[in-house]
Amino acid sequence: MKKSFILFSTVVATLLSAQTIQSITYKNLSRISEKIANETIDLKIGNEFNAHNINKSLQSFYNFNYFNDIQVYNNNGALEFVFTEKPSIANIEVKGYKTSKNDLDSLYFNMGITKGSMYTKDRVLRAKKSLLLSLEREGYINSVVEVETINLNKDAISLIFNVNKGDEILIQKINYFGANYLDQDDFNEVTANKEKEMISWWFGQNTGELKLNQVSYESRRINDLYYQHGFLDATVEDPFMTIDFASNEAILNFNIKENEQYFTNDIIIYADASIIDVNTLYEELQLEKDDVFNINKLRKDIKYIKTEFANLGYAFVNVKYDLQKDSKNHKVNIVFNVIPGEKVYINDVIISGNTRTLDRVIRRNIFLAPKDLYNLTDLKDSKNRLGRSGFFENIEIKEQRVSSNKINLLVEVKEAATGNLVLGGGYGSYDGLMFNASVNDKNIFGSGINIGFSLDVSKRKKDFTISLKNPSINDSKYNGEVSAYTKKSEYKNKKYDLNTNTTGFGIGIGRNYFRNVYAGVRYKFENIDEKYSNNTTTKTDNKYVISSVTPYVSYNTTDDYYVPREGMIAGLSYEIAGLGGDAKFHKLHAYFKYFYGFNDLLDYDMIVKYKAKVKVLFDKGKITEGQSFYLGGPGSLRGYESYSFSPEYLGVDILKKSFTNTVELSFPLIPSAKMRWGLFYDYGMIGDNTFNQLKRSGAGALVEWISPVGPLQFIFSKPIDAEETDKTSNFEFSLGTSF
Length: 739
Fold this sequence. Notes:
Helix 1 runs antiparallel to helix 3 (51-63) and helix 4 (101-111) crosses helix 5 (121-137). 18% of the residues lie in helices and 45% in strands. Among the domains are: 2-85, membrane protein fhac (Ubiquitin-like (UB roll)); 88-164, Ubiquitin-like (UB roll); 169-257, Roll (Ubiquitin-like (UB roll)), CATH 3.10.20.310; 263-339, membrane protein fhac (Ubiquitin-like (UB roll), Roll), CATH 3.10.20.310; 345-415, membrane protein fhac (Ubiquitin-like (UB roll), Roll); 628-739, no CATH class. The protein is globular, with a radius of gyration of 35 Å. A hairpin with a 4-residue loop joins strand 11 (240-244) and strand 12. It is built from 13 helices and 34 strands. The longest helix has 17 residues, at 121-137. It is of the alpha+beta class. A 16-stranded antiparallel sheet has the order 19-20-21-22-23-24-25-26-27-28-29-30-31-32-33-34, with no helix packed on it. Strands 9, 10, 11 and 12 form a four-stranded mixed sheet that branches. The chain has a three-stranded mixed sheet with strand order 1-3-2.
C-alpha cells in the first residue's frame, strides 16, 4: 500500500508539474505538529510541483512509523496531505498470568508495551515474545500466548494476551559436588532455586519450582557464601541442569572447589590523619585479627569508614581495599585506602512533590541547610524524621552534584492522606456493637498541626474528645498539645455494675532537646463520678477530682509512622496526682519498641518487632479504683478478652503492677493495598504487690491494613496457658492502633 500511494502521488505530481504550490495543508494529523510536518517535507509555497520532492516528503512521513496510509491531493495549487494514522492501544489485559498491579506494571514494562502507545504488529509480536520469555524464566515450558485484537474505533484498539501456562518444572534434586564445609541448608539460605521438599505444600517448605531466570546467578551467590566463611580461593562452576520432560523434573548440579579457609591477619587503614585519627576507626571494625575472614564484614567496614568520612563533609569519599593473601599460612591482610576528595557543602535544598504540605514544614525536619557541611548521618536522620511524621507515603532525598565541593539535596515526597472523615462501626469481643465518627487531620492546611474530633459509642462506653497538637510551635523546638473530653463507661463483674462519668481536659508543653529526644510535661484535670448498682458489697458511690502533672521523656529513631523497618522507640513518664485533687497517687509508665527489617539481607520485606511495657502504681494517700491496671485484649495480651484480668479476678482492690511484652514477625501480603500479615507471641504479668501474681501468654496470626480510616487489625489468637476460669478470645479486631 505504501509503495502504491507513493507511485500514485508521483503520477499526480508529474501531471501537475507546470503548476506552482499555492498552499500546503494537513488533514487528520495528530501525532506530530504542523511545524514538524512543514520541516519534514521538501516543499514550499511558490515552488513548482516536483515529483521527486513529493515522493521524498512521503517517504519522510512514513519513516515516523506513525501512519498506515498517506494520500496527496491537489486543488488548483492547493496541496493537501491526508493521513490515516495507526491506532493507539487503549487497553491491555493479560489473562491467565500475573494478577497484582505491581506485577502487571513490571510485566508491561518488560514487554515494552503501555496504554497509549501506538499499535504495530511488530510491537505486539515483541511483547508476545517477551511474555513467553518471562514464563520460561519462571520455569514454565511449552507455554502458549494468543493475542486478541479488538477494534474500539478507528483510532483505538484493545489488546488481550491470553496465556496458557505450560508445564512447570520442579527441581527434584540439587547436587553440590565438592562441598564439604557447607551443606544444603547453608546453600538454601542464599539460592533462589531449591530442591523440592517433603510435604512441599506446607508453610515454609520448598516447593522446588524452577526459577530459570535466577539459575545464572546461583554460582555467584554460592561463591559469595564461601567468601563469607573465609574460602577466598573457592570456585563454583556454572550449574549444569538436566530436565526429564516426561515427568517435568529437573536435576541441578554444581561443581565446587572449596580449597582452604583463610583467617584475617593484619588490618591496615591508609587515610589522611589530618582529617580523622585512623586509630579511632579500628575499634569499630567488624573484621578482627585471627577471626575467619568474612566478606560481609568487609562490606560493613567499608560502609562504616565511608560514613565516618562522609559525616565530616566528604560526600564523595572512596574507600578502596586490597586483599593480600598468604596462601601458605592461609591468612589474609586487608588494606584499606581512603581517598576523601574535597569537603562538600550543601548548595541548596530543593523540595518537590508537596502539593499541600508547606515547604517550611518539610525543611524543619531536614538537618541540612544551604552552606552546611555535608553529613551522611544527618541525611539519613532527615529521611527517617520525615517518614515518622506520617505526612508522606514515600520520601527520596537525592544528591545532585553541582561542583567538586557542592551538592543540591533533592527532597522528593509523595504526600499521604492525612485528613479523614470517618463514619464507621463494628463489633468487638468486649464492647459489643460499636459506632465511631471522627474528623481528624494531622497536617491541617499543610501546617503540620494535628486537630481532631472523635466520638466512640458502644455497649459499654461513650467517649467524645477534641484535641489539637502542634509538633513545632512557630517552627521552633517546642511542641504543645491541648485536649478536652467526656467519657462514660460501664464495667460489670459478678458482684456489681460500675458506671463511670468522666469530664476533663489536658494541656502539655514539650521540647526537642536532642535530635531524637523529646521531653516535656502534661497537666490533666478530671472530674469523675462513679455509681454502683446491684450492690452486694460495701462499695458506695464516689465523686472525686484528679489533678495531676506528668513529666515525660521519649526517644524515637524509627523510619516510618505506620510501618517502621528500623529503629527504636522508648519512653518514660511519671504521673503525680494530688496537686489540689482528691486522688493521691504516682504512676510510672515505661515502654520500649524495636524494629528490624530484613529487606537488605534477604531481599524480602520481613520485619521483626519487639515491644515491652512496664507500669507501676504507687499509693500516696488515695488510689481510685479507676486507676487500676487490667490485662487482656489487643492492647496488652491477645488470646484473652479485653480487661479480663481485673482486680476482681485476683481478689484484690487494685492491680498496681503490670508487665507485658510482644514479639511479632510481619510479612507483606498485598503491598499495593498496604496490607501485611504477621505472627505474634504475647506474654504478660500483673499483680497487686508483685508483677507475677498472674502470668499468661498467647500466640496467633494477624492481618493488618493501613486503611484510609487508620490502622486496622484482624487478630486470630489462641491462649497458651489459660485456665478454666479465664475469658479467652480467638478473634478480635482493632481500629486506630498499631504495634
